[in-house]
Amino acid sequence: MPERLRLHASHLDEFRVRLGRVRVLAQRFEKDQAAFGALCGWILTGLGDRYVRHDELIAYVEETFVITVLGLRRVAGGGQSLAAFVGTPDDGPRSATEIIDGVLATVASREWVEPLLAEAAPVAEFALPVDDDVAVLRAGGLDVALSRIPPLRRMVDDLAGMPDVVAEQAELWSVMAADLRVIGTDLRRCLDADFAGQCGDDVQAYLTLMANNVEALRGLVATCTAMTVITKAAGDLILLGRDIVRGLIADVVLRVTGWVADPAVVPLPVLVARLGVVVATSWRIDAYLTALVTSIANLSRTIDG
Description:
This protein has 305 residues and is mainly α. The chain is 79% helix and 0% strand.
């Protein structure tokens, strides 16, 4: 039995090292939310807080391995009995599935997305399809408007964020989920293999204790999975909002350019109608921005849900 315990302790030490590598990977996260743009990033501060909490939980499991390794080696050396070391294990954490399924269901349902955006069709760049000549004029008009009108440029910049960083954050959560899932599965197999044929009460108590660590790792996997979905959902919706706003600006600039280039005398009713188009576009942009902010705020609440 002493040799079995020493071997098992060495295996746990390997798991500790693997958890340390996961923590190093997670340190690549952006700590602020500038990646989501100035308009919505402040709402998503919970993402940064969640990373900090997640790192603390991994560190806690890592520490339990350190304590367990030391204890097992002490037991193997005859300094303490296994029963005394284990004590009375508690029932462990709640099921990871129970904790996280509600969050995943909420995000997947898209009920957090305001109707105005929920009904908007995804766009690659601008909202309405046009022929090539008009597309060139519209894109050029948008560039001119953004370069010559600072408030418009600031508005689009506040929406832009850093999509590549958002994608990297989502990928990091996904990679952590995969790594922690493998560690949890390997730990379960290790426990079964290292104590095969052992049925004493002290051994069963120890296995119950370590099952809590297996469940804790599953909980961390579930959290990583949820954060992958939440991060991607936030980034995708912000990009959609940005493209819609850019499309609306480009369309109204194109119209105004055409009106200015038209040498004909325009009757007053037509002028009023044209002014109405500009005002209506402004209201639509404001409505989309409001819907985006509200949607992201709704999504942010699921982080601690």
